[in-house]
Design brief:
Distance between the termini: 46 Å
Number of strands: 0
Radius of gyration: 16 Å
Shape: extended
Order of helices and strands: H
Structural class: mainly alpha
Strand content: under 5%
Helix content: 25-40%
Length: about 50
């Protein structure tokens, strides 16, 4: 029996913007976690900000 092997696609990080500080990353995480706890779902193309 042939079993298909799937590998994850690597993300293009060339346009990624790193957090300026650990504090900024913390507040981003807490905001995202609060939204998740309130029932938010991740849906492609539904971001508030368009990618730069």
């Amino acid at each position: 029996m042939n079993k298909k092997h799937y590998t994850p696609k690597t993300a293009d990080l060339s346009s990624a913007t790193p957090f300026i500080s650990a504090e900024e990353a913390w507040f981003w995480f807490m905001t995202a976690q609060a939204a998740k706890n309130d029932g938010a779902r991740v849906t492609a193309g539904q971001a508030r900000q368009a990618p730069v």
